[in-house]
Every structure is written in C-alpha cells, then in structure tokens.
Amino acid sequence: MAEEARPQLKKPSFPINDRLLEYLRRYKREQKLPVTYDRLNGFEESIPLVDRNGVPTLWDSVIYNRLEMGPLHEDLKRVYALLRTAGDTSVLKHVYVDRIDYCSFGNSRPFRIRIVNAYNDNADHFYIKRGDASRVYGLELEHLLSPNRMNYFTCGDSLVEEHVAGIPGNVFIDDWLGSSRAELNPVRVAKELVKFNERCFIRLLGDMRSYNFVMVVTPDFEGAQLRLRAMDFDQQSYEGRLNFYRPQFFPENRSFALFCVQQLRPETAQQYQREEQVAILNRAAIAEEKLGAILEAMALDTISPPENRAELRQALADHFKRDAYLKCNSMGELVRENLESIRISAASQPSGTRGPILE
C-alpha cells in the first residue's frame, strides 16, 4: 500500500534572496507598491467572518484607524490597478474597497482585499501576503509550466497575488463529483485530474489537498470543459517524501483517486499522463530563457533542509531509474532533472507518438 501524503512539520518561510530578486526585477515582477504587508498588519480590531449560511470561516474582517482607512483604501485601489490595468487608475474610479479580511491560518497569513464595482456590484479579490521564496518559485513555475497564467508582484518582503477563481476541490467532491450534472463528462473530469497530478509531480508542487486547488468549469458546445488550478504554492519543493508531490495519495483526495479508477482504463490514464508531459515540454521550450533563469536561481537557493533533499533525490532516482538524480544538491536541480527525465522518456517513444517539440 502506498504511503499517504500527510504533511509533517510546518514549513518555515524562506526569504527572497538577491538572485531571486534579480530575476523578479528583470521580468517586472518586483514593483514599488503603495501598500505592504506590514502596513496592513497594523489593524486595530477584527470581526469573525461568516459565510452566506452563517457558518464561521477561517477569516476575520479587520478594521483600521479611521484616519488611516481612507488613504489605505485609495492605495489598495492603486495596487489593484497594477494587477488589472497595468497601473491605469483612470478606468477604476468607480471601484471601491468593500472589505479587508485576514487569515491567521496557514504559512502566509494573507490579507484578502474585496474590490467592488459601484455600477454593477460585481466583486473581485486580491491578496497581500508575507513574501516567501518557496511561494514565489511556485507561482513562477506554475506560470511557465502549466496552462495557467499567474498574475503577481513582489515588493520587498510583500507578495501581491490575484484571486484564482473556481470551485474548491473539496466543494467539488461534495456537490459535483458523482452527481448527475449533464454538462460534466465524467471521463473529462478524470482526464483533467490525471493531468493535474502529473503537473504537480513534475514541477514538485506539494500539498495539493482538495482545498488547495480549484476546478474551473467552462461551458462548451459539447458539454463543459474542466481545468484544475493550484491556488496554494507554499509547499513548492520542500518535503522529502515523493508522494507529497502526487495529489492522488492525500486522504482528502481519495474520492478523486477512486473516481479516476472507475472512469479510466490504465492505458488511457497513461495516455493522458504522456499528453501532459509533452505539453509541459512544449511550454518549457517556449519559455526556455525564463525557465532557465528561475531554475538557476532556485538551484542556488536553500528552500528545503538537506535531509529532505537527500530523501527526495533518492526517491526520484528510484522512481525514474536514473542515477543522475543522486548528483543533485538542490530542489531546483531536482525540478530540472524531472524535466530531463520526461524529455528522455518522450524521445524514446515511436516517432508517431511524439509531440511537436520532440520531433
């Protein structure tokens, strides 16, 4: 029986070092922002936040000094303008800050800002968190190696992220999985679960329990399409256990794993796994310069203790049957070696099964 991928000790926060900061500046991710995490941390009161059913959440709504509230809201609108309109505030005169929430649960202790359009009451959100190198590497690898684009900025030790919209995985299990919703093709759902699992494993994104990713449902002329998106990147390349990077081994994801077994033959699951590997290689080729730069910074950074790196490189060497892993001395090198492993594997297949990058 495979080992369950339960988290162990709480992961520490790692500072953004000079090499990573150089990358962020080069690719315009580092910005001068009018609001930092420390400024938001100066709230005076908090009120527990409940959901639409009156059930307490993990969030509190926070209140600031009345003299600070007005200027803070204006500066938060400027941050939102950077995320949405490249800093053009002229088109955002009709939006206002409705609420600032704070969550003490988790590593990043984020603030969530709720922005509302005064004309139509449409709401949007973004987050300001304490900067953490692991999370920045996770965001950038998601941006480069997944089908999803990530919109974020850093400012010193502060991190600003846009909201990742979708149905939380745990809610999807309770309300959608196994339901008779005609718009969802069960095989498509299983296919996307397999592909998401492969993306997490190759780029070493850990702790993808059901409440750390969302399901994005898009209507299509032949039923809805589905895509899984990670929304928590704190556990990028930290743990030493191999199964921590394979979502199907988390107890919280057992319903998804069983669903895939019911819907897919092993040969079909392997086909979808290979499709995602080739897609990752294609994305890596398109972003070759940026990917090389971020992996170089990651390879020279310390974002995991030595015993975790040693455990993981041995496990990956056994999994892929490649001793090259045993020469890796950092998590960045292990991610790079994972990409090399799937490149070698894909290149060894008959030419008719290769993706365009491999031919």
In short:
The protein is built from 11 helices and 10 strands. By secondary structure, the protein is an alpha+beta fold. Strands 1-2-3-4-5-7-6 form a 7-stranded antiparallel sheet.
Structural key phrases:
disordered C terminus, three-stranded antiparallel β-sheet, 17% strand, 359 residues, seven-stranded antiparallel β-sheet, alpha+beta, 2 domains, single chain
Which helices and strands occur, and which strands form pairs?
Blueprint: H1 18-26, H2 37-40, E1 45-50, E2 56-63, H3 66-85, E3 95-103, E4 111-117, E5 123-130, H4 133-145, E6 152-155, E7 158-162, E8 167-168, H5 169-175, H6 186-202, E9 213-218, E10 225-230, H7 254-263, H8 266-286, H9 288-299, H10 306-320, H11 331-347
Helix pairs in contact: 4-9, 6-7, 6-8, 8-11, 9-11, 10-11
Please, could you describe this protein's structure?
This protein is of the alpha+beta class and 359 residues long. It has helices at 18-26, 37-40, 66-85, 133-145, 169-175, 186-202, 254-263, 266-286, 288-299, 306-320, 331-347; strands at 45-50, 56-63, 95-103, 111-117, 123-130, 152-155, 158-162, 167-168, 213-218, 225-230. The chain folds into two domains: 18-162, no CATH class; 167-358, no CATH class. Helix content is 40%, strand content 17%. The strands form two sheets. A seven-stranded antiparallel sheet has the order 1-2-3-4-5-7-6.
